[in-house]
Predict the 3D structure of the following.
Amino acid sequence: MSKRDQPSPAKKIAPYKPARTTALLGLGLDNQDGHKRITTGDKFALIGGSAETHERMSETTIKTFEELKRRDKHLETVDHSELAEIIHKSTPR
């Protein structure tokens, strides 16, 4: 059998690896007025909630990103425990 007659070796296909995305997701589950509230940004999505809950999620998100900027940190690289502390500190009382 000549080289030309031999079947070509199977090509190996690398497994699919989706791109990693880091973002904050806020879900409000207390909506009873039927409004669909959705707020999105580059690194966050806030979905649902009553008007009050959605406003609190929005305020918390804004303050969280402001604090990350003050600390010269990025959402992709900040430690989870530090992010939790920042979010807790940023949540309106």
